[in-house]
Amino acid sequence: MKEITATLLFLVTDTKILLAMKKRGFGINRYNGVGGKPEPGETIEQTMIRESIEEIGVTPINFKKIAKIAFNEYLKGEPVIMNMHVFLSDKWSGEPIETEEMAPKWFDKDKVPFEIMWPDDLYWLPQVINEQKLTANFKLDINDKITSHNIKIVDEI
Q: Residue 44: its pLDDT value, please?
């Protein structure tokens, strides 16, 4: 089975979280953080920063890795394992802007629109918003329905 490494970043303030509506490709018409796959020679952190600049025009300055999640799912009809490295940033340069790929929008942390996000987000994003470090595994069927999951709160990622 093919394995993919990817990043996911959420900008946060004391009361808000930035989500972005995906306008094309994988995850289209869903709110999510920003991120993507590494280019050759990039570290996970370099990938996260590059993707943030490309997708919403923001450079994360103060960030931390908060979760590592393995998704056993389907991509373009093919089974894959997506190893997602999740980051939070509470300091950045630039203002979030809409690009061809993403339309960013601020939400109150207690009003996250889970109904228009990936189905698994409801299970782990609340802990991440509360800055709890976690590892998780999700198995999804070809229709993105969760068939099993496991979440563990940890001290270190």
A: 97
